[in-house]
Design a protein that fits this description.
- The chain has helices spanning about 20-30, 35-45, 70-100, 110-125, 130-145, 150-165, 165-175, 185-195, 195-200, 210-225, 295-310, 325-335, 355-370, 395-405, 425-440, 480-520; strands at about 1-5, 10-15, 55, 60, 240, 255, 265, 275-280, 285-290, 315-320, 375, 410-415, 460-470.
- The chain folds into four domains: about 1-65, no CATH class; about 125-295, Serine Threonine Protein Phosphatase 5, Tetratricopeptide repeat; about 300-470, no CATH class; about 480-520.
- The chain is elongated and about 170 Å long.
- The protein is built from 16 helices and 13 strands.
- The chain is of the alpha+beta class and about 525 residues long.
- The N and C termini lie far apart (about 165 Å).
């Protein structure tokens, strides 16, 4: 509690004797009657006059000594509170005056701007009210922003939010974060998060207009969407398509406006859908799957690649054993005392007992991609295609390729499991559910979104594939070597021709010599 000294005007704090004053009052009121007054009188005569204030500047003592009645004391408290309120209002007006003065920065010289900044720093060093400190730091952030000092502006606005978390301070932070070049798409999203708070809570920087803020949000949204795919996978793993104006932007779930949806993003047939949450494919960075069906679609994608790989490796036949139904058969037999049909093996078999729709969905995917079948001998040599995305992440597939190259594998068992393609953890699901509910409540997603699928447990099913292969054949001698051998054969033919002409010449020479000798003899 403070009060001005009536003698010199210095502000004074209540002294320690206030506690003794309260004790005397309590004695009178609690005990009551003549005994209470008598004990109070003894205390007053022993302690002497009690003063609530003593001026540290002039030493003047003032305030109630409790010799006056209760009404007088309460009046003094009311006066004190009124004076304090008036003083606080006057002080806040001084802060507001400084804030308004900052709007003239554009007309200041560099020297005047430095003096104003020094004045702000001086005020901050003496201020003890959190709300006033926050306001001063907000002004300091604007001064730094106007001078192009982004780091200084961010430091100042973060301190402002630390002292008093106001929506207009967040909007200012968003404007500052939108400064500068070479910002990543993730930086732009973080700036948008701060910018939209002024809409969410109706707070706007004191130096901006609604139109300016709306234009800035539009620019940042377009820039963010254009660079979206440059965001690291983990930071854009989950997205939601929205056709609503920004009202809030969650941390993990990235909101992508429908009208700014990047054309490079790929979706499965029938998508994208407004309000739908999508998960990015772990090995195809531009491909997004609906959260509701992501596991089955990932599983189907992996199976398709596995079938393609096995065919390229020279698969002769594929047989599939549903391990899940075998386990269910064994369980049913145990529960029913052994009254169950023969063990199921291969596609098309059956067992008595229940079989969930979810199991059937995954079984259908297996049937579509890896149905039991045989293959004619491939025209191409066994090889690993270059366009595989799952293969680099499947060690068992790589081991199979190495064994085939050694030439000692005729058949092989491959296990495929839905758990291998699980990509959303329980923690991520919980966080997503919270963020989607908050976004729906704020009006950021149109319609009624069902979040029940986010908390469902993932399926864990396995199948075993028995694959027979054609014998692995080494590649024949390259064509280049055959041409080389032909090149070596050419000189030998040339030597043979030369020998033949030499013999013909010798024979001709002998004939001519014989003719000459016969002529001379005659």
């Amino acid at each position: 509690m403070k009060r001005k000294c009536p003698k010199c005007g210095q502000w004074c704090d209540a002294n320690k004797s206030e506690r003794m004053s309260e004790f005397i009052f309590t004695t009178e009121r609690v005990i009551g009657g003549s005994l209470g007054y008598m004990m109070s009188d003894i205390a007053k005569s022993t302690i002497g006059p009690v003063y609530k204030f003593q001026c540290p500047k002039c030493g003047n003592k003032f305030g109630s000594n409790y010799e006056s009645d209760d009404q007088t004391f309460e009046y003094e408290l009311e006066q004190l509170e009124s004076e304090e309120n008036n003083s606080q209002q006057e002080h806040k007006q001084e802060i507001i005056s400084l804030r308004d003065q900052s709007l003239q920065l554009s007309s200041y010289s560099s020297h005047e701007a430095e003096e104003f900044e020094e004045q702000l720093a001086s005020e901050l060093s003496e201020e003890d009210d959190d709300e006033c400190i926050a306001c001063l730091y907000n002004v300091m952030a604007y001064v730094k922003y106007k001078s192009g000092d982004k780091n200084g502006a961010l430091d100042a606005i973060n301190l402002s939010i630390q002292y008093y978390d106001a929506p207009d301070a967040h909007a200012t932070k968003g404007v500052v974060m939108a400064m500068g070049e070479n910002r990543t798409a993730f930086d732009k999203y973080k700036a948008l998060q701060e910018l939209v708070k002024y809409k969410e809570e109706n707070g706007i920087p004191y130096w901006a207009t609604n139109g300016e803020m709306d234009n800035l949000i539009e620019e940042q949204t377009l820039s963010f969407a254009n660079d979206f795919l440059s965001i690291p996978y983990r930071q854009r793993k989950f997205i939601v398509i929205s056709d609503q104006d920004y009202v809030m932007l969650p941390d993990n779930l990235k909101v992508v406006p429908w009208k700014y949806l990047p054309t490079e993003i790929q979706f499965s047939e029938g998508h994208p859908v407004v309000g739908e949450v999508y998960v990015c494919h772990p090995y195809k960075e531009t491909y997004y799957l609906p959260l509701d069906t992501y596991q089955i679609e990932l599983f189907r994608d992996e199976l398709s690649e596995l079938r393609y790989l096995l065919q390229c490796l020279g698969a002769k036949s594929i047989e599939i054993e549903d391990r899940n139904r075998n386990e269910e058969s064994a369980t049913s037999a145990k529960n029913m005392g052994g009254h169950v049909r023969a063990e199921y093996k291969g596609i098309g078999g059956g067992v008595n007992g229940s079989h969930s729709n979810e199991q059937e969905t995954f079984q259908t995917a297996v049937n579509d991609c890896l149905v039991s079948q045989s293959f004619s001998k491939p025209k191409e040599k066994a090889h690993v295609p270059e366009d595989l995305v799952w293969y680099p992440h499947r060690k068992s597939w790589q081991d199979l390729v190495r064994q085939l190259k050694m030439g000692n594998v005729d058949s092989h068992h491959v296990t495929v499991s839905t758990s291998d393609c699980s990509q959303v953890s329980a923690k991520e699901s919980s966080s997503l559910e919270i963020e989607v509910n908050a976004l729906v409540a704020a009006g950021g997603i149109g319609g009624n979104y069902d979040t029940s699928s986010m908390s469902k447990s993932e399926t864990n099913k396995s199948w075993t594939l028995k694959v027979d292969f054609y014998p692995y054949e080494e590649e024949k001698t390259p064509l280049v070597k055959q041409e080389t051998s032909q090149l070596f054969a050419a000189p030998n033919n040339a030597i043979g021709n030369q020998t033949r002409w030499l013999i013909y010449g010798l024979v001709a020479l002998i004939v001519i010599l014989g003719a000459i000798i016969a002529f001379l003899v005659q």
